[in-house]
Amino acid sequence: MIDVVDVRKSYRSGDRTVDALRGVRCHVPKGRFAFIVGPSGSGKSTLLYLLGALDRPTSGSILVEGQDLTTMSEAEQNAYRRDRVGFIFQSFNLISNLTAVENVLVPFLPRGMTPELKVRAEALLRDVGLGDRLDHRPYQMSGGEQQRVAIARALIKDPILVLGDEPTGELDSKTGDEIYRILRRLQVQRETTLVVVTHDRRFITPDDLVLEIQDGVLKIDDGLLEPEDDLPETMIGFEPGLRRPDVV
């Protein structure tokens, strides 16, 4: 599903170069729930944005279902984001003067909405527990309800990949638990691949893949996987508690 191959990302900050990612390699299979964790400034969101083609790496390759995002044209990347990826951010990014249904349908505004799409949007909102909020605007809903609208908006396209950047960061713990229950249920029902950045490890289960980043490199349990280390090609993601492979 997702193959990240020796990805590096550098930024210019004044007169110096900042290496946000330093040779990241990983594989996330189709239909899995993966978490990207690590300290602030470690490169978590940078990796997530690269997976969503919101930015380009300095070097390396990112393949999603065999398609290399790094060789896509601007138009091809736009189509990838529009048609194949759903985004859920910490800020709900709802349009204040639109109803819940209309906010879910925002991805289709440039192409036009059909009665069939409206039916799908209403069904999704009912599926996330908002059947009685279809015509409510954001200011009439709680934070948890607004994030559920954002989840429905991310899924309306039937994406192959859903990316979340701290989706419960602005919610209390109880509401955060509800959001993750919804995400997990929908992920199983739709066999969608989810990759989520979080600071809160309590949402991680033993069945999840965990990508822990520190100083721009992947950290495996008791040590950092440096770019020059040998990573077996068959290694799938990084399961919680997996030991560092021997380096030949």
Automatic annotation (TrEMBL):
Record SMART domains: AAA
Alphabetized CDD domains for the sequence: ABC_MJ0796_LolCDE_FtsE
Keyword Metal-binding applies: no
Keyword terms of this UniProt record: ATP-binding, Nucleotide-binding, Transport
Domain (ABC transporter) ranges: 2-247
GO cellular component, one term: plasma membrane
Xref: SUPFAM superfamilies: P-loop containing nucleoside triphosphate hydrolases
Alphabetical list of Pfam families matching this protein: ABC_tran
InterPro entries named among the record's database cross-references: AAA+_ATPase (IPR003593), ABC_transporter-like_ATP-bd (IPR003439), ABC_transporter-like_CS (IPR017871), ABC_transpr_LolD-like (IPR015854), MacB-like_ATP-bd (IPR017911), P-loop_NTPase (IPR027417)
Keyword Nucleotide-binding in annotation: yes
Coiled coil start-end: none
Top-level division of the source organism's lineage: Bacteria
GO terms for MF: ATP binding; ATP hydrolysis activity; transmembrane transporter activity
Family: Belongs to the ABC transporter superfamily. Macrolide exporter (TC 3.A.1.122) family.
Annotated protein name in UniProt: ABC transporter ATP-binding protein
